[in-house]
């Protein structure tokens, strides 16, 4: 038995009993919070840092079935992800949109007929409602690829602003009554009679508060095993494998809007994706990882590997001097430790501890961003059953905040008509970040003077106020790298001024 927790003098108790307390503010935790709150459950979610501060903002930013998973015969996972792709395109058209992918064919790859067969399966494992099917390609002298690459294929998937997906999902949860507590760590969770008693610590003030709940969800991602061992005191029944994926951002490699999927001689996949107008996003790697997931970063070997694969395919050659930014995320996969990291399953497992007479614990193991909504639905189904609170699943047709419009082109035209003083570049960014929430952000503005202080790039005080008040932003990092990607465009001195500004105004953050 573990020792009783040391209660600080500032520890207070919350007498309300929640139905569900969720630990982890990544996409899975926020997805469960949204679904459960929408079914009438009383929900509290805590996250030790900012929402989407780890794995969920460090992905390849794709909503995809995972073409490469067909190589490992993961047909169930691919079919499930492809079906979810269509739902997400409908529900979040401001932050998710279709993208075409080009697959160059080279001598070391499987025969062209076999790749075409794989693409046929990819087209038909789930119903396509909005996306075009695959086709063969011939590359000519206008191609950005090396001249010896003359043949390839093209297929459809989708792009997502991963961090905004998390934040908007959290906002949808809050709109349905969930309490969202970023920068709040769970420091102790124990069963007391038929309830969970959970101690949370505000990481800014150090204040601790005790809450009670009928069920507990461990959505800690790469910290899930640590939570079970050191906080929840529950044995790990399925070993987790931590795998790091790293990405680099370089100046734009090609002018087109399509992405490229490059298969190296070692059968690993690297994507080259148009990113933030002027850049290309290149990734990912798959390497086993040990250590603090928050400290993960691009290694020299990973950077050289990504550059090598791109230079083997593209006319334009890159060096390390071309790397403008990099990031790395750690995924917790429930596969065993045997085999290559890239072959480990990206499917998910919901591990339930539910002994008679004791409050249940549900741990989320594995998963990928494309299937988060279905994972959340299955998790909430199980929670409702365990809590004897039947309620119908509802999120498949649920539009995320700001997504209630027909298409981006029409919305952009409407914004330009309503706010003719807004620069076109800003209107386009708002369309792809906030959707119809732009009206909320710009409420009362009649000119650029009403936008307030300019911090550099495309960022003004009005938007910063909005993010503090409605999206839990408290630091410049929250605004520049998760609520937006303006960190690519802003100088470090400007970021410091922004942080000073936010330090004064962060008292307005939502609770």
From TrEMBL:
| Keyword Flavoprotein part of the UniProt annotation | yes
**Looking at the record's lineage, which domain of life comes first?**
Bacteria
Taking every annotated instance into account, which residue ranges of this chain make up the domain FAD dependent oxidoreductase? 19-373
**What residue stretches are annotated with the Alpha-glycerophosphate oxidase C-terminal domain?**
395-503
GO molecular-function terms, A-Z: glycerol-3-phosphate dehydrogenase (quinone) activity
Its GO biological process annotations read: glycerol-3-phosphate catabolic process
Q: Which reactions are catalysed by this chain?
A: a quinone + sn-glycerol 3-phosphate = dihydroxyacetone phosphate + a quinol
Q: What is its EC number?
A: 1.1.5.3
Kindly state which keywords UniProt assigns to this record, in alphabetical order: FAD, Flavoprotein, Oxidoreductase
**Cofactor(s) the protein needs:** FAD
Quote the cellular component terms of the Gene Ontology held in the record: glycerol-3-phosphate dehydrogenase (FAD) complex
What PROSITE patterns does the database record attribute to this sequence? FAD_G3PDH_1, FAD_G3PDH_2
Keyword Oxidoreductase part of the UniProt annotation? yes
Protein family? Belongs to the FAD-dependent glycerol-3-phosphate dehydrogenase family.
Return the NCBIfam families for the record. PRK12266.1 (NF008899), PRK13369.1 (NF009906)
Q: Name it.
A: Glycerol-3-phosphate dehydrogenase
Species, as recorded: Halopseudomonas bauzanensis
């Amino acid at each position: 038995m573990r020792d009783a927790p040391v209660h600080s003098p500032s520890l207070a108790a919350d007498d309300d009993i929640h139905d569900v307390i969720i630990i982890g503010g990544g996409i899975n935790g926020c997805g469960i919070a949204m679904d459960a709150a929408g079914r009438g459950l009383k929900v509290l979610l805590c996250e030790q840092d900012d929402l989407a501060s780890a794995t969920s903002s460090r992905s390849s930013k794709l909503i995809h079935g995972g073409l490469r998973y067909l190589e490992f015969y993961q047909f169930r996972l691919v079919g499930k992800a492809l079906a979810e792709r269509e739902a997400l395109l409908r529900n979040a058209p401001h932050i998710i949109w279709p993208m075409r992918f080009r697959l160059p064919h080279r001598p070391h790859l499987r025969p062209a007929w076999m790749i075409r067969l794989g693409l046929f399966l990819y087209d038909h494992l789930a119903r396509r409602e909005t996306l075009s099917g695959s086709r063969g390609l011939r590359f000519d002298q206008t191609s950005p690829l090396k001249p010896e690459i003359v043949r390839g294929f093209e297929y459809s998937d989708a792009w997502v602003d991963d961090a905004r997906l998390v934040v908007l999902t959290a906002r949808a949860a809050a709109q349905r009554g969930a309490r969202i507590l970023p920068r709040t760590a769970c420091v102790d969770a124990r069963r007391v009679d038929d309830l969970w008693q959970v101690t949370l610590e505000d990481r800014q003030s150090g204040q601790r508060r005790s809450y009670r709940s009928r069920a507990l969800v461990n959505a800690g991602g790469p910290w899930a095993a640590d939570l079970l061992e050191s906080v929840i005191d529950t044995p790990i029944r399925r070993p987790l494998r931590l795998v790091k994926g790293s990405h680099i951002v370089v100046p734009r490699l090609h002018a087109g809007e399509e992405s490229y999927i490059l298969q190296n001689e070692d059968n690993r996949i690297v994507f080259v994706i148009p990113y933030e107008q002027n850049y290309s996003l290149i990734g990912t790697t798959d390497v086993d990882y040990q250590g603090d997931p928050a400290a993960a970063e691009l290694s020299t070997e990973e950077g050289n590997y990504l550059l090598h694969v791109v230079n083997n395919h593209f006319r334009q050659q890159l060096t390390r001097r071309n790397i403008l930014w990099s990031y790395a995320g750690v995924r917790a996969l429930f596969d065993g430790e045997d085999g290559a990291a890239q072959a480990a399953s990206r499917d998910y497992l919901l591990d339930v501890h539910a002994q008679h007479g004791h409050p249940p614990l549900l741990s989320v193991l594995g998963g990928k961003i494309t299937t988060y909504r279905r994972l959340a639905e299955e998790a909430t189904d199980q929670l409702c059953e365990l809590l004897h609170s039947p309620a119908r699943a509802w999120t498949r047709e649920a539009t995320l905040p700001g997504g209630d419009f027909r298409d981006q082109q029409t919305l952009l035209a409407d914004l330009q008509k309503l706010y003719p003083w807004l620069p076109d570049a800003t209107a386009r960014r708002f369309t792809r970040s906030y959707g119809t929430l732009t009206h909320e952000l710009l409420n009362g503005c009649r000119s650029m003077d009403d936008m307030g202080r300019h911090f550099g790039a495309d960022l003004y005080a009005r938007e910063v106020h909005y993010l503090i008040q409605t999206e839990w932003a408290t630091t410049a990092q929250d605004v520049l790298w998760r609520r937006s990607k303006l960190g690519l465009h802003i100088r470090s001195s400007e970021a410091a001024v922004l942080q000073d500004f936010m330090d004064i105004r962060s008292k307005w953050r939502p609770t």
